[in-house]
Fold each of these.
Amino acid sequence: MEIMLIEENFQKEVLESDIPVLVDFWAEWCAPCLMIAPTIEEIAQEYSGRLRVGKLNVDENPTIAAKYNIRSIPTLLIFKEGKVIEQIVGALPKEALKSKIEVILPMELKEIKKEIRRGLEKYTKESPYKFNPDKKKVDLILSGLAKRKKELGFAYCPCRVPSGNKEEDRKIICPCAYHKEEIAKDGICLCGLFVRKER
């Protein structure tokens, strides 16, 4: 759902928002603004919970429009942590607008987990290892990897602690540098994600 922005709520709804905010600067007399209005509404619904969408009438709120140097409309500004990180001037097709939004939004854990699983499935096809047959355990480990990737930037092995030394920490990105040795010795890696394929 779109938020009607005015000078009184702009600070709270946009600048203090804990998620990114797309602000549509528009006016009632602007034909291109009216043309993209349904697209903006669809974006608000599709990205609900991940992106806040607000509309600001430039005629009724000239101070904010001037502050952000809005010279033509429609202009869309995307704010993150109170700062403008993207400016789009003119009526863009929905898919072009979505591609700009996707770059900005943090990936959801579910999407990160899928991406990690795809990469590790490819790895298991090319290596003598496979996922642990215990699907619940694999799912838990993949969730841990996704959480670490989202929070720390890398899918560090869940059974190891990053040191802060980039060179050393690279060795513990899953599949870590130690899993082959562990599987050779115990038939399973330390975290339990990979096991040896039967011959």
Note: The CA atoms of residues 112 and 118 lie 10 Å apart.
Amino acid sequence: MILPRWYIALGLTLALAGCHESTGPAPAAASIDVTPSAADIPLGGTRQLSVTVRDAQSRVLNNPAVTFASTDTTVATVSGTGLLTGRALGFASVTVTAGAVATTVSVVVVTHPSGTVAGTAAVASRPFAIAISRSGLAYAGRQDLPYLQLSQLPDAGFGDSVRVGSDPTDIAFTSMGTTAYVTNQFSLNVGVISVGVKRSVDSIPIPSGNPFRVVVAPDDQYCYVSTSTGMLYEISTVTNTITRQLALSVSPVNGLAFQPNGDVLYATSTGGSLFEITLSTGVVRFAAVGGTLQDIAVSLDGTELYIANEAGALDVRDAATGADLTTIPAAANAFALKLSPDGTELYASFPSSGLVKIIDRASRSVVQTLGVGGMPRRIAFSRLGTTALIPNESGFISVIK
């Protein structure tokens, strides 16, 4: 059982906690901490910023004057108390100022696709992996050729290619999309791709097992790679070297997902185990779920985990305790699982039946079933959430709008 622990709350009111007594002039602001430091807001939704101001001695200031300003009020507005509201899909930033110091919070207003199969893009040699950058650049990995196929959304045609290693199984972009990491399963390494020059510029050997999954931490400082032998490797994105390794399981680890705060990483093994890794301490906690676990997703508020199980119902668990909250039998035997950018829907793929199911996260019910045919595999959403791409081993990529 995963033991209870504290979480960073993202929905607090303006937090200017603590006090500093002084008989002289009020100390000047020296630093500002804002939570979240980057905010995704559903279209029409809201999110509260929490602010802490400190003086030069790192003491929290009591009731300092703080102002907020949005760079694009057509996309996102912000109130005098730091409440963000998503007005239109797009990118903006909010400047938070206290005295002579200021900091910036990036804001993205997001949604989810309507659930219509808008078409298919032909990609040969069993497309399997998929990732989409902030700018809409899509990379698709093919199992039978050492190349990634490229597409620039909204155009869903895949043309240019980047040579990588054998059987590129998973792909992850950095937050700004300038670098991509690819697990070259049978080359036993992780490739580093410079997006601007469209080529692999480095490779990182993986000591144990075939690399399966890769995710980049929210702060872009590390990426994490799982393997067929149950290992987890931490790789510095600055030096492209392994900085830490953890033996999680004797079974392949085929699911990775972060808590929104970036300090906790969840991993699932095909042997039926769920792992919680606190990255700042290296503490690993474990829960026995059972079945053949594949992908995992985390709710935007960090309170719930969703686990695809190829030998059972889709599992919903409490992130703080690891306790089983419920299952979704209508989504049993799923392989890939992805939460929409606005956090309202889960997309799941079913290779054995040629289906993609869309699950309403709040009601835990399947609201749409898409018969895409073939063998649908991994799932990626565009940054704003208007498009989903799903590679299919039968030689195409489904485009969901």
Note: The two ends are 39 Å apart (CA to CA).
Amino acid sequence: MRSLFFLLIVSFPFSLTAQILRVSADEIKHHLYSSDAYFNKKFADINKLKTITCKFSIKKELQPIKETGRSYIYDFDERGQMVKQLETFYKKGHVLDTSITYFYYDEKGNISLKRTNDPQGFFSYTYEYDSNDRMLYYSYNRDENANKNKRKFKLKRSFVIFSESYKYEERDSIIKRTVLNDLGTIYKEDFIKFNGFKQIIEKSHRFIVTGKKGKTNYEYDYYGRLVKKTEFTKAIKKLETVTIYEYDEFGNLLSEKTYRNENHIITKEFLYDENMLLKAQLTKDEASGTIFIIKFSYDFH
């Protein structure tokens, strides 16, 4: 995979501060963004990051690299908050289409609204938090545009499709989170355990009706960086998924290796230029040998 490095050259005539990628056990807020967007807000803020453009390609074994036509453009404000996500992709029949997501924040920097405009219309997520920035409520909504021009959105009305609410109990180093559905019925319990440094070391959950359980353990190095995540789930059979994180001497994430029941299934490698800017993410499916490539480019305020 390192042989692809010379294909991905980008240069910048200045130095940067902080790491661009954020790896954290605090996944409560991760679903607010796309699965590929775990950029460090501190990096975006300090370095006045304006735009990240991500272009996707694929390399199957013994075949040349092929562009997929899929891309993401992430826009940030001057405080390092992501405010817009533009996704370009091909629909059936090789028709190019786009999906736009806007992010809105409260005064404490928590996302209060995420609205997406895609071929099916406008949809939104709304979020509410307690004084400790823990999520109290979220809803998934179908939004109706008062304007005929879909590029200019003005909310006419919003219909709640699904919602959840949360209650918290804190005892010593453990937080219990009770999850209620839109009928106000408890259907799930989460337990989050912390170490003495306020780092999450274990998360577990239990579904009330089915009794189905799951657990995730987290391990850290001397610098406080997440180095291992172990997920235990049991559906038809017991599954153990382990992810190992490796960093360079500057704290930049170099790789993620994922194993399922001790079988190596996925390898992600992150390539940087001389200014510590991420230039590419390479994700290899170990079974097929297929490599999925994301190339990154940047603009600054």
Note: The first helix runs from residue 41 to 46.
Amino acid sequence: MDGDSKYCVCKLIGAIDVIGRKWSLVIVGLLGNKESYRFSEIQKELKVISPKTLTDTLKKLEKLGVIKRKVFNEIPPRVEYSLTESGKELRKIVLELLEWSTRLEELKDEPCVIMRRKSS
């Protein structure tokens, strides 16, 4: 067992808090498609998520340091959401998970949020 990496599985609790929520990974994937999104743009892209659920999920992701919320001092008020560095790392994992799950099952006839892999 020499040379094996050891990890405390307790660290998964924080990760599960992020990824265990129904819309978290979808929102992380979407936010990585461009620099930032306004609430209404996220709502328009996701279509089937209620405003309350979207608000709650965005607040949780912000609290966990996955996304950042920028408020502009304008009238009417403008708020934009974007990924933090941690969120960008998570998005890479989400893309891998998406590729893996796509190999397992054909896409069903359900609303689909598109994630684009940016070329480096």
Note: The chain has a mean pLDDT of 86.
